[in-house]
Amino acid sequence: MTSEAKKDAPLGRVIVITSGKGGVGKTTSSAAISAGLAKQGFKTVVIDFDVGLRNLDMIMGCERRVVFDFINVIQGDAKLKQALIKDKRLETLFILPTSQTRDKDALTKEGVEQILNELKAEFDYIVCDSPAGIERGAQMAMYYADEAVVVTNPEVSSVRDSDRVLGLLSSQTKRAETDGAEPIKAQVLLTRYDQARVDSGEMMTVEDVLEILAVPLLGVIPESKAILKASNVGTPVVLDEPSAASRAYEDAISRLTGTQVEMRIQGERRPGLFQRLFGRAT
Amino acid sequence: MNLFSFVRKPRPTQSAQTAKDRLQILLAHERSSGTAEADYLPMLQRDIIAAIRKHVPIIGDKDVDVRMERGDQMSSLEINIELPAGLSTKKG
Question: What's the whole-model pTM score?
Answer without folding.
Answer: 0.78
